[in-house]
From TrEMBL:
Superkingdom to which the source organism belongs: Bacteria
Gene3D superfamilies reported in the protein's UniProt record: PucR C-terminal helix-turn-helix domain
Residue ranges constituting the Purine catabolism PurC-like domain according to the UniProt record: 18-125
This protein's name: Regulatory protein
Pfam families linked: HTH_30 (PF13556), PucR (PF07905)
All residue ranges annotated as the PucR C-terminal helix-turn-helix domain in the record: 461-515
InterPro entries attached to this UniProt entry: CdaR-like_regulators (IPR051448), PucR_C-HTH_dom (IPR025736), PucR_C-HTH_sf (IPR042070), PucR_dom (IPR012914)
Length: 530
């Protein structure tokens, strides 16, 4: 078995083809046994002694002035007996950050810049060319790349962080498309739109594509039933030869893991959401209100801000479409609207829809506009005492019932084929009373009052139009295409049946209650009230 070859740092630096320039020169006796690239934030523990670390400075983007970050990196590399740091300029930085130069000088740690036109793999291949086991090197390299990419999982936006690290690893561009070609995340300066066009033009996904000076590798993905395309591009074909498959395979698995973690988090959040909403609907003691306000903070509620109960009913008898629910949840999160939402109401008698508690904030109107495209929504009056939530939902149920008549009544935008929104404070007393008291006894009482009129449909129709047209006989005659005297005759006959004058407020009030829905249907936009 051959012994592993080592170099002196001075021999590596002297090789003209590597494009190295001394920033903080190293000693003449420094031994170099290997070289690897890393952009992770804790690289030292992955390096063997006498190894050169190559970096483009990704960890310093946005933190180039952080002296402690630079000092920490150099102290860790020195403790791990890393031989030197080679910094590739022209990717993120045109020059080595001053804080890093200062840290190297302070700790007498060798620092060299790598010219923009020199690919890192040239340096790595030169130093690593005489390893005992090439397979061992490839395995370790795959492990380092995997650990580097894994750092993105804990980021605030893990997909964006993963694509950024992927682009850095291939020294070029990384891009993630959805199945329509929309770019979800990308990094680098590669021709992302041309890449998508070429992928679409391929009868089958090719292992490699060439677009101008760019070499491209791509892989189709399916995550929870949705299709994506992941592509990497580099001007250096050797990088894709050596790393392309490992990078795509690792990234595909990490995207699957990120998606799984995200779905688990969403599922857990929705369970907590539904559980908390159920507690409020069942009723909580006043003494526990503050405790529940604190539990509502993760859902963007502020303690003792005004909230409303919402009951939404679907136009059909089917549950709400999943995309609409997703949009409602995402819109609330994006706008900062406090929201607790549970689908399908609380009882089997509730029509398909949802129950919710929302913040009564400026973001509410836009959220309601999204929902009223296809739903009927009833909102309680604003309240701040969470113990009032059960009563608030009873109010919202009443408002939702009125909203279902909104396409007839013209209430708050109720247009045929669309939903409607009704806030309880906007409901008139008659609509309120009719929505609250519609027992069989109530219905029978009203029907008995108009029973005689119902025996003559022309007579009943005339009375309803008489009320709808504000008791204007000429207008009624015009609508019914008859002579005004015919209208007067029918009205006189109606008065005989009702045992009272149609000018009597009592008779008018009783007729309005009896024919409320018909009046709304004929006038629309609340004109029956005019």
């Amino acid at each position: 078995m051959n012994e592993r070859k080592t170099f002196l740092l001075s021999e590596v630096v002297a090789h003209a083809g590597l494009g190295l320039r001394a920033v903080v020169p190293g000693g003449s006796g420094v031994v170099v046994a290997g070289a690897h690239t890393s952009e992770i934030h804790d690289p030292a523990r992955w390096f063997e002694p006498d190894t050169v670390m190559l970096t483009t400075g990704l960890r310093f983007v946005g933190a180039e002035g952080d002296r402690r970050l630079a000092e920490k990196l150099i102290m860790e590399l020195k403790s791990a007996q890393v031989a030197a740091l080679f910094f590739g300029i022209g990717v993120y930085f045109d020059e080595v950050p001053a804080t890093l130069v200062t840290a190297c000088r302070k700790n007498r740690f060798p620092l060299y810049s790598v010219a923009p036109e020199v690919p890192f793999h040239h340096v790595e291949n030169f130093i690593n060319q005489s390893k005992v086991s090439p397979d061992s090197y490839v395995l370790k390299r795959a492990m380092w790349l995997t650990n580097d990419l894994l750092q993105s999982v804990s980021a605030e936006n893990p997909v964006r962080a993963l694509v950024a690290r992927l682009g850095a690893a291939c020294r070029g561009t990384a891009v993630l498309y959805d199945d329509s070609g929309r770019i979800l995340e990308s990094t680098g300066e590669g021709p992302t739109h041309l890449i998508w066009t070429e992928l679409q033009n391929q009868e089958r996904v090719a292992e490699r594509l060439t677009i101008g000076r760019w070499e491209v590798m791509a892989r189709p993905l399916v995550l929870r039933g949705n299709g994506y395309q992941l592509a990497i591009a580099s001007r250096n074909s050797g990088i894709l030869d050596e790393l392309g498959e490992v990078l795509l395979e690792t990234t595909q698995r990490l995207l699957g893991a990120i998606n799984g973690i995200s779905q688990f988090s969403i599922s857990r959040e929705r369970h907590e959401n539904s559980q908390l909403l159920t507690m409020l609907q069942d009723g909580i003691p006043v003494a526990r209100e503050f405790r529940h306000w604190e539990r509502m903070r993760p859902f963007r509620f502020l303690p003792y801000e005004r909230v409303r109960a919402v009951v939404a009913a679907n136009q059909g008898e089917q549950p709400i479409a999943a995309p609409l629910v997703e949009n409602l949840l995402q819109r609330a999160a994006a706008s900062g609207l406090g929201l607790l939402l549970a689908e399908n109401g609380r009882t089997p008698q509730s029509p398909p829809g949802f129950h919710a508690v929302v913040s009564d904030s400026v973001a509410l109107n836009a959220w309601l506009q999204l929902a009223e495209e296809s739903l009927f929504l009833g909102l309680s009056e604003p309240y701040v005492d969470l113990a009032q939530t059960p009563d608030a939902f009873r109010e919202a149920e009443i408002a939702a019932g009125i909203a279902r008549k909104a396409p007839i009544a013209g209430v708050s935008g109720g247009t045929k084929g669309r939903g409607a929104v009704v806030r309880l404070e906007e409901v008139d007393p008659v609509s309120w009373l009719l929505s609250r008291y519609r027992s069989q006894q109530d219905t029978d009482k009203v029907r008995r009052f108009i029973h005689g009129l119902g025996q003559d449909k022309d007579l009943e129709n005339t009375v309803i139009w008489f009320l709808a047209k504000n008791q204007d006989i000429a207008q009624v005659a015009k609508v019914l295409f008859v002579h005004p005297n015919t209208i007067r005759y029918r009205l006189k006959k109606a008065e005989e049946i009702l045992c009272g004058s149609l000018a009597s407020p009592k008779i008018i009030a009783n007729l309005y209650l009896a024919y409320h829905d018909e009046l709304l249907a004929r006038n629309g936009a609340g004109q029956a009230d005019g």
